[in-house]
Fold this protein.
Amino acid sequence: MHSNPHQLSAPLPFPRRTFLKGMLGAGAGSLAASTPLFAQSPRKTGDKVRLACCGIGNRGKDDVLALHATGLCSIVALCDVDMGAPHTLDVLKKFPDVPQFQDFRKMLDKMGKDIDAVSIGVPDFAHFPIAMLAMSMGKHVYVEKPMAHTFQEVELMMQAEKKYKVAAQMGNQGHSEANFFQFKAWTEAGIIKNVTKITAFMNSGRRWHGMKVNGYLPEQPVPASLDWDTWLGTAQPHAYHKGYTNGDWRSWFDFGNGALGDWGAHIFDTAHEFLHLGLPEEINSLKADGPSDFIFPQASTLCFKFPKRDGMPALDLTWYDGVKNLPPLPDQFGDAVVDPNIPPPTTGKIDTKAKTMAQGKVIYGEGLTFKGGTHGASLEIIPKEKANDMASKLPVVPKSPSNHFANFLLACKGEETCRSSFAVAGPLSQVMVLGVIAQHVNAQLKFDRASKQITNHPIANALLVGPPPRKEWESFYKL
């Protein structure tokens, strides 16, 4: 599959029992399949979803607690490569009697028959193998954003969702909150129409800001509690350093997708879906401060060009990140739009009174301009005089029937459909991955939407697939 890095290929037919035997040789422990590895029958409507959780610290912890708080699931297994580390203790204390694993392969092998769904709150690069194995076993999956690390991985995950007929939700809370239903209602009513320009920005401090590196970090002793080999997963071999773990992985091209992968889904997700953006035909790197082969730029500006589609005009989406790389904003922009339910980024606070806000968007439509924040924050028409004029003409926006976590679990039970399914979230994630590639090579990229290839930059095109996985992880790309 990876012999030609310039080719995105369909998944190969691959017997899963052979796959599990292969993993046994790769040191994954006892993997004789204890249950038939086929999609399970839907459970009775009243049953709780039996949920296994991969990643139980940091953001993974938040997912576990939020899913459990719905009352729709029971936690039946916990998995973390650093089980017992300080950031895992809250979940371990809350669920002291739940079986614990350090390797998701062992967990799925040993407990497959007792698991209906899997939550995946681990670093970006590690989403793919867990999700693919779980889906191939008929398990529903809740995966943090972005869906995966590479364009090809997202493509294969979309194919797997369809093939295995599972509920698959990308964690993108705004897709179940006010902004989702407002954007849908306003586009259907023609309030938001003929959009030609979107400005999206994330100007909070990030972990890599101020970092200077000339290569990978020096080797440190691996903590006794950490399964470093399983942490690395599909990635190329790296010597352990604490600077790759606990959120710091997001700084590195090898492991994360930067500010764009972290916040893009929360900022322009609804515009992407309801304006039918799909994939861009061009991505221009307009600015990349402190370019590096290893970590993300200190600041970047990207312009995604989307063609005419479905009767809508061509659209330019311009992305700004970096603390001082502030976007141009309308004169009467006013205060920030902030969703009160979201935490601030891992570094820095959200300043609601700033001329610019830390994260958000401006949408330029026919006759109207809108400002927005992130996640579930509603759009506002600007200036205020125009908003007052429009107030009586706005459609009623329905309330959400379920939050994002409940929506996923109800989809597992067959009662709702995932609002951020892989079919919806996949192209959005691929837009973000294309932006990361443009940041990496700092160039203008031409993208063929039909063949899904970058046509003017062979190195960038090879990054659609990325480096081949370590040998013992190749099989995940054939599920």
